[in-house]
Each structure stands twice: as C-alpha cells, then as structure tokens.
Amino acid sequence: MMTRRAFSAAAAVAAACVAAPALRAQGRLEKTKLAIAVGGKAAFYYLPLTISEQLGYFKAEGLDVEISDFAGGAKSLQALMGGSADVVAGAYEHTINMQSKNQSIQSIVLMGRAPQIAVGVSTKTMPGFKTMAELRGKKVGVSAPGSSTNMVANLVLSRAGIKASEVSIVGVGTAAGALTALRSGQVDVMSNTDPVMTMLEQKGDVKIISDTRTLKGTQEVFGGPMPAACFYTHADFVKSHPNTCQALANAIVHGLKWLQTAGPSDIIKTVPESYLLGDRALYLASFNKVREAIGVDGMLPDDGAKTALRALASFEPSIKPEKIDLTRTYTNDFARRAKDKYKA
C-alpha cells in the first residue's frame, strides 16, 4: 500500500507533468529561482506557504523557491526593501504602510482571511487583571517590533486610550522563545499567533483579552473583514514578472484548495515536526481554532483593504486615508486565474 508521503510525492510529479503544457500556455517564467522572505514560518498564519512548499506545488509551477525565515514580518519586509528577497509572505497591511512612505508594494495572492492574532495578559505577572488601563507601563511581547502582532497590540492599546509609547514592545518570535518569554515573566502581555497563543491559553499562562483567530472575533476587533498573510512584492516586479507572479499565485491557491479538505492528521503528516512545538494534541487544537481564518481562493476582498486602512489610520498618525490609493496595494488578477485553474 502506498504511504501518504509517497502518494503526495507521486501526486506532485503528476501535477508537474500536467502543469508543463499549462505553463507553456501561460508564458515562460521571467524568473524561476526566487528568494521568499517570511517572518515566523512555523505559525499557522503561514500554513498555506508551508503546505504549498511541502507538497511540491511551487516546483509543479516551474519555480525553485528558497524560503528564508525571520523573527517577524518587519524583518522580512526589510529583506525585500534591501534586495535580498524577491517576494515576502507577510501581512497585507505592510503594503499600505509602505505606500504612506512613497514605496509601491503590492499583494498578489491572499493566504489568510483573518489575522489569527490573539492578545493575552500573563496570569503570573498580572494575576488580578480587570481593566485595559492596567496595561499602561507593561512589557508587551510581539513576534518582532513593527510586525502585524505589534499592529494588533497597538490597536488594542489605542482603544483603551494607551499610546504605543506608554508600553515597552519586546520582540519574542513566534515559537518556543515566545512561550519562554511569557512563562519566565520577561513580558506581561503577549500579542502572537497560533500555535503559541493556544498553548499559553490551554496551560493557563494567559488570559485572552482580544482575539482575531476567528472571523467573528476579527469582525469584533476590526469592524470588518481583515486580510492577513499574503505574497507581496514591489509593484515594478509584478509588472515585469507577470508569469512568475501567476506561478506563485497558482502554487498558493493549489495549497489553499488542499487545505479546504485536509484533516488534522493530514496537517501533522505534512508540516515539519519542529512546528508542533513538542505537543501534537495542542497543535491540532490550535489548527481547529484558526481553520476558518485560512484563505480559500487567494482573493483579497475590497472591503478587507478598507478595514486594514481604517485600522492602521486609527493609531498611526503618519497614515492619511485620503492619500492612500488602495487599488495600488493589491491585485486579484493572478488569484482569479489560479482560482479558475484549481476550482478553488
């Protein structure tokens, strides 16, 4: 009997054979070897990237990708701006942030329909927590300063009337280091993704005070749909590499399609062992919690872009909504074609 891994490998080879004529029809790839930067690859936030990589979907599209993992999204954005990465798997709101600094960055395919970020207070250093005002002066753990975990923390603080300058932001990553930082008392508050937040929550280490791991929770926090992880790159790269961008979108939408029917055991067999952080059951509990937040067809909703702009402008004085052209921050052209190709 064929093992699932052997079957996946055979399926990837078969997909590559099937994809070859389609690629010729689509046009030659302008660039086949790509450097992709990501901040916290083991987080569920980037699960579609890992799935598409592990199941050979990038190779099936004719791409040879090298993925570099950084501590957080702000660092992977730096890699793109510094020229060491061609594309970033990162939070959509960076495209808006960069436009406010006169840099044209564009999302080409969406992986996440909700940020999947929860904010919790430490039950060890803040055992009697009652009101948000108590967060003033505290140490807040985020994946990396300037990342989307930092943005959600800023939003929660600003709604409580607390300025970002009134807390200390500490970069703790999105894996074992984040668990240690909170449990050892290095931080009082944690704004992070799963599986980290579910692990802290289930062991009673945090009390959750804000949650965007579900579509309902995201609606409550942001007042609308909030696009999360996407592939983004320089607008010039999108113009000069349309076939390469199409191949990237195809690979991700193929992964999203697989995720729609995958069971928890399929996920466990596909992701690297290190992603489980030593607790398979908790990893699966986390997956079930964020499942609906994962994208389905790679399309970024227009009202989602508006929600992101509204959220950023609410605590970031440098972002003036009237000066931002949202149509330049994303395109659904590649996702639309990929959706048709894979019937996602």
TrEMBL record:
A biological-process GO annotation: alkanesulfonate transmembrane transport
Pfam families on file: NMT1 (PF09084)
Cross-referenced InterPro entries: SsuA/THI5
Keyword tags: Signal
Similarity remark: Belongs to the bacterial solute-binding protein SsuA/TauA family.
Region forming the signal peptide: 1-24
Cellular localisation: Periplasm
PANTHER family the UniProt entry points to: ALIPHATIC SULFONATES-BINDING PROTEIN-RELATED (PTHR30024), TAURINE-BINDING PERIPLASMIC PROTEIN (PTHR30024:SF47)
Keyword field contains Protein transport: no
Protein name according to UniProt: ABC transporter substrate-binding protein
Domain of life, source organism: Bacteria
Species, as recorded: Ramlibacter tataouinensis
GO CC field: periplasmic space
Main location: periplasm
Annotated SsuA/THI5-like domain residues: 45-259
